[in-house]
Structures are given as structure tokens and as C-alpha cells.
Amino acid sequence: MRSAPLPRMSRRGRVTIGVLIGVFVLFTLLGWGVQAWTDWLWFDEVDYTQVFTGVLVTRLLLFLAVGLGMAALVGGNLWLAHRLRPGLRPHSAEQATLERYRMILGPRIGTWILLASAVVALFAGLSAQSRWSQWLLFRNGGDFGVKDPEFGVDVGFYVFQLPFLRYLLGVGFTAVVLAVIGALAVHYVFGGVRLQGVGDRMTNAARAHLTTLVAVFVLLKAIAYVLDRRAMLLEYNDSAKLYGAGYADVNALLPAKEILAYISIVVAIAIIVFSNAVMRNLVWPGISLALLGISAVAIGGIYPWAVQTFEVKPSARDKEAPYIQRSIDATRAAFSLTDTKITPYGANNLTPPAALATDKAVVPNARLLDPQLVSETYTQLQQVRGFYDFGPKLDIDRYTVNGQTRDYVVGMREINYGELTDQQSNWINRHTVYTHGFGLVGAPANQVVCGGQPFFVSGFLGEREQERCSAQTDQIPTEQPRIYYGERMTADDYAIVGSTDEDRNAEFDRPTPTTGGEQYYTYTGEGGVEIGSFTRRLLYAIKEQESNFLLSEAVNDNSKLLYVRNPRDRVEKVAPFLTIDGDPYPAVVDGRIQWIVDAYTTSATYPYAERVNLQQETTDELTGRGTFQLARENVNYIRNSVKATVDAYDGTVRLYEFDDADPVLKAWNKAFGGDLVTPRSEIPEALAAHFRYPADLFKVQRNLLTKFHVTNPGDFYSGQDFWQVPNVPDAPDSGQKQPPYYLYTQFPEQDAPRFQLTSAVTPNGRQNLAALISGSYVDGQPRLEVWELPDQTRVSGPVQVHQQMTNNAAIRQQLNLLSSNQAQVQYGNLLSLPFDNGMLYVEPVYVKSNQQDAYPLLQKVLLSYGDGGSYVVLANNMEEGIKQLVEQGKQAAAGNPPPAGEGETPPPPAGGETPPPLTGELAEAAQRVQTAIAEVKAAQTSGDFERYGRALKALDEAMTAFQQAQRAATPAPSAPGASPSAPAPSGGPSSPAPSPTG
Questions:
Q1: Which residues pair with 754 in a beta bridge?
Q2: N or C: which end of the chain has fewer CB within 10 A?
Q3: What mean pLDDT, rounded, does the chain reach?
Q4: What is the pTM of this model?
């Protein structure tokens, strides 16, 4: 009985569906077209069109090649299955049911096959185009000059060839599986395969077709086994807890996969022969497939498991030793740890030496300003307008002023669009008036003035403050201080600049403190996309979905559009194949402000190397507080191959080659024409002088060195010499790691002070100090150095040192006086500085009032020498603290060591309590302390921070006088008091222009 035909859709319904599909396609293509066009204009602006065209053409070619190839394979098998349909089909209920589908498919079988092939091609092409980076490396990659330790194959095969080959193999498997499924369905619908009726369930033609596809699948499996042998060098070895093939892998699994590859070839041949030439049924082919499965389990699973269980586990340390050595060597090579210089450092001097007072390299350069804490101070003192912002963390750089090189805390006075008022946030103001920030504000990192404020030396907007609170001339002068590109910019913060009226400037430039007015400006830089024509305005009106591009008079014939204004995003768009460091920093180079952005080439297929997650390894206390969080990218090879710059005024992007030996960067440079990056020899000296060891790379290397400083396989297996990165000293329970810190200082065996990134590490599971790790540049080349302390050292680690210093009885009382219900104590960077075969610890102490808009002021400095607890002082400044430490050392040398906290005479009680009856000078000193305490409380209440700083200084002087009176009255040893002297500002009107130094 013939089935009733399906009802046909009405003409109106077909037209409606056609219109809806057409509208969807039109808007999709319009969106793609607008995005592509605007991207081209942006890449043309920054002069990197070769990246845009290279990536776009590669994606299109991969889309077409893989999509058409997949469509041809799947569609061809569907067509072949239809051609091989039987002419006569036996009558059965099953065939009667299928007749309805034959009537639907048969008349337009070509259309249905084309439609199915198009769907397959679309998804295959979309998947393929995302592999553009693998293809470009596959095509342009070369040799590393290093061979893997198992097969003797160049590492370049694993980095450049293997990833794309495995992808192609996956495409092959997918195509064959889809072809088998599609062909089986067509054979079934048209009678080539039956489930009911007498006789064979499959025609000879259908059997030959389907078994051939299955044989191809098995042959692909043989190829997979061959590639798996190489990929084993990238897998995790559970026995050694390292990456790379271990004993069982090499001696059992590796030969097993070779055997399975041969078995697969034999099985593929057997499937074709037994199915079509000998027995012409599926029994023996089925048996062959079953044997292949059993072989895979027995040879590829049970045998390696037995070797691992009965041979490796009982003596894993010895069996895995050669393979652990392979992993150690590969990891150290892949992460540039091979040339790390490890120097034993005894740190057995526990008494402050007199040389501290005369040192010119370490002590004077100890950084007191914490970039994270003083960000608020910069904002409050240098903000001027509420929409200016310095961000949650500032940066560290070094400059030479008056012939003296030291590090400076620098910040950019940027526009923060989130701080604009409701009235300021309309479209005109947001995008055409408030377009840029103004000035790089800097202050010496080891100097404070005016009650704990930074001594600002650059970035002034108008009149200077009183002479003792800031420099009277700009000591880091810039020819163009305006900031159109900065870290505070988001994707929505585009700016429209340019004016046709030469007498009228539309952009807010800066306030004028002398007159109380404001200055306006018109952008004159080369950067920006011209949008003066109607076509361009319409284009960007569609892109930004904003009609004001067409309607507003602020957009004129001279207008330019500035977008992608965050320097990190800008470099990432120019070089999408690079991993960008999370902490760009500004520098004044030849009078212009340049953002310097470190960029990395990475890979995840370096044989035997440890694989790490970049996001996990680089996350610490500062992540998200002025530093960007990296993506969750797994890598086992990384190089800081590129130093990129972004001009803060016109957005010019430059990519400079920094590692001229990196094969990955060479491959990318070749892929984009050979001139994508500027050769290292052409890096300007003034720019190179500001290069610094990148923070994220250092964190990865530091974390790996906590284990891979151990190079003996047996010791590595035991893990007893591993280190760990300590938590934040003043908040150890937070679980956040202590960030590394930049210092301009000189460590043991270094010829001169260097600008270096430093971190302390402790033994695994303990809190004493294990080593100091430093990253710096020497003659333009990166250098990692480790100063390793003895295993049983008495020297405390950062967390212990902070606790010992702040829990000292006398110091605790002084810290309690600094904090109250209306103020809080905040601790800056705890610096661990090796000095004279001992350890000097420096930790600045800030006080922040609880009043609205308060900011931290540096009030004291905690210092300790030796083991962290025996010699501790809390001083007004570094100079006086060093004097007190040296005095304690002299007392110890004279056989009169300082008290450990218990025997110290406490100051008079605060809070209005009546002190014990005193007479003479002691009574006068006690009364002076009481008066000073009352003044501190009054200053806290008033919110006057300068008064508060003077009050704290007076309190410290009163406490010193009281302790001196006590010693005169009772000859008992006590800790020396803090010096009342305050630091004097350096620099002045006669200071020459700075020159950066490396």
C-alpha cells in the first residue's frame, strides 16, 4: 500500500521563510562585513595590515580546504551508496515502511546530498579556520637544534608539526565516521541493508562499500598509533609525577603501540579480503575487529600496567631516574632555567655590622614606597579632577637625575570614564571632550616628605606645592604629556578627536590652578582612523550602534576615531599569536611616554618539559589590582621574545625582537612576511635602558625553580629539597602568594647595582628562608640568579620575619599607638636584602585614617637583621633605623645584647591613665609623652594628615626622651629609640633633565 504524500507548504509560507532566512543571512553578512572593514582600517592605522590579511586569508583557505574536503568525502560516499542501491528489493513490512522515505528522497537525492554535505562542510570549515595558528607554524616552523632524548627527533617536529598532524588525523576520523553513518543510512533506506526478510541482510555492493570505510578507519588508527608513540613524550608520568614517557611507557607501552600499528594494518587488509574476496560475509571481519580490540586492551593496557605494578613500583626511584633526568633537563631548557646561577649564601652573620651605616649600594636604594599602597596617595594628591585616576597599582622604573640612578614609583594620570558624573557622561562629553589624561607622575621610591608623602618630581599640572613637598622643576620632563592610550581604557572608551575650527579646541586638556580655569586642546597626532566621510561615519555608526556618528556636529571632516586604546589590548590585536604579560608599564623615552609591554611566544608540545597553567602560576596578591590576569593557557615552553611599545599619545605600536634565537618567533615572523618584528639591533638605546625582567615570566620561572633547582634525579624523586613561595607576610592566612618586587640594588657577587626583580622562597612546609631568586638584565641579556641558604639556617622567611618584628613588645606598643579607632596601620613590601653575609629586612609602615578620601602616609620603617627577631627597630626613616641597628650590633659585640622584647621598658600607658609617681627629668619626659599622645588623637580626629605626621614625630621624640631618662635613672639596657630627624628632599630647580639607565 502506497503511503499518502506529505502536505506541501503554501506559497506564502515558503516566501515568508525565504524572507526570514534572507534577512538573517543579510544581517549576519553585514555584521561580518562591518567588522572586517573596520578591522582593516584599524590595522592600516597601526601599519600591520600583513597580520590582518595573513590571518584572514589563512582562515578562509582552511575553511574552504577542510570544508570542501570533508564535504567531498561525506557527500561522495552518500552518492556512492545511492548508486549501489539494489534494483529489486524483496517485499516486507520493513520495505513498505521505507518506501515513503524513498519517495521523499529519491526525486531530489542530489539536492539532499548537497544539503547534507554543505552542513558538514560548514561545521568542518568553522572548526578548521580556528586552527590558523597551528597551520602557520606547521608551514613556517624550522628546527630547534635540540633532539628529543628517545627518538632523536628535532624538537621542532613536536612544536610545529605534531599539533597540526594530530588535528588532520582527527579530521580524517570524523570524516570516515560520518561517511560510515551516512552510507549505512542510505543503504538501509534504499534496500542495500535490511533487518528483515529472507536471504542476506546486506548486498555485496553495500558490504564492499561499508567494509572498505571500516578498513580505512582501522588504517587511520594505525597512523594514530604511530603518532601516539611521539606524543607519549608529552604525557604525564604518574610514577615520577613529571611529564614525559617513563620506564613503563618506554619499555612496555612504546613497543606495544608499534605492535598495535602493525596489527591494525593486518586487520584492515583482513577486513577487505574476508568481506569481499574469500568468505564474503562479516563474520571474519568482525572477529578481526574483536581481536584488534582485545590486542589493544592486552598489549596496550594490561602489559604496561603489569610492568608498572610489578617492576617499576617496587623500585621506582631507580627505574625512573633516567626519565626524571630527562624531564629536569627538558624543563630547564624549555623555561630558560639552564643558565641559572646558583650561589651558596651562608647568611651566618646574625649581628648587624657597622658597614650598614656606610653602605652606598644596598641601604640607600631600599625601596620604601609600595606601588600598591601609594596609588591612593597619588590619586588624592595629584588627581586634581575626580575623573583622573592612577589605577590600583603603580609601576617601578629607574631614571638618572643629577647623576644619581635610583628607582622611581611612576603612575599615569589617566581618564577614568567610570568616574565621570552623570552630567559629564553624555555621549558628547564622554567621547569628544574627555578624551585623554595628562602627565606621568613620578617620585623617588626611597624618599618621603611632609609627614609621609611621596616627593613628586614630574607630571605637574600647574603650580608646584611648597618647596619641601615636591620638586620645583620637572625632573622627568616629557615633550608630549597627553595620554590618549592607557590601562584605564576599556573596549567602549573610544574617542573622537579633531576639529575644523582652528580657533576652538573641544577636548578638555587640564585644569589651570593659577586661574581656576581649564585649558582645551585639539589632537594633532598621526594615530586614529579618519571618519570625516559619510561612508566612514555610517560604517562606525553601525559598528558602535550609535547614531551620533551621523547626527552630531562634533563629528566633522577632520575627525579621527581612536579605539582599542588599552596598550595591552592593542599589542594583543596586532600580534594575536603572542601571550601578553599582565603588567604593562610606562616610561619616558626621548621625551615621549611609551607603554612597554612584554610579550611571550609559547608552546605546549615541548617533549618531556613540565606543563604549567599560566593563569595559576602568575596569580598572586596583585592580580586584578593593577595587573591583568592571564588566560588559562597550558604551556611547557616560553620565551620573552618580544618587547612591544605603544605610544601613549598617538598609539603607535612597535614590536621589537628581544630573543633573536627563538625558533617560534622566527616562524611567526616568516609567516607574516619576514618583517613583522623589528630586529633587536635596531632597538633604541634609550628604550632598552627601560627594559625590565617581566613579572609573569619571572613568576613562572621562580615557581619552577622551587622544584627544578634540584638536578639530581634521586633527590628530585624524594622531594625533600623542594621550596615554596611564601604567602603575603602581613596576611599569611589569605592564601595569596607574596608578589616579587623590583629593586635597584646590588646583591652579593654583583659588580654594581642592578634593576632586578626579586623573590624570597622558603623550604616546602616550613617558614625559614631557603633562597633568594633574582631576575635582571646584564648587557641586555636576561639572567636568573639564586642565592641558596644552608638547609638548617636560622634565618627566618618573610612571614616569620613580619610576625617577629610586629610582635616585639616595644614595637607592638608603638604600632598600637599608630592605630586606633580612627586609623589603621598598613604594611608595605617586605624586602629581603642579603648584606655582609647576613640578611637585612625592610618593611615600611603606613598609617591611613578612616576619614573619607584618606590616603596612606609612610610613618615608620621596620628593620631587622640576622634571624629576624634578635635585632629589630621601628624608626622614623631608613637612616635612623640603620643607626639603631648598628648600635644594637655594637652593644652585642660588647657583650650587652639587646632584649628580645620581654625585658624592654614600656612607654607610659595611654588613654588618660595615671602613670606611677615620677620625679625630676623622668616626670617631665612622661608628661611630654602624655601631651604627644593627646596631640596624636586630636590630629586623627581632625583629619589633617600633615598635622598627624608632625604629631607622630613628636610622639616618637617624646618616647625617645623618656627611654633616655629611664636609662639615666636605672642603668639597665634597653633598645635605642627612633631618631627624630626627617628626610630632606633632593633635587631642585637646578636638577638637569634625567637620562634613563639600565
A1: 745
A2: N
A3: 86
A4: 0.85
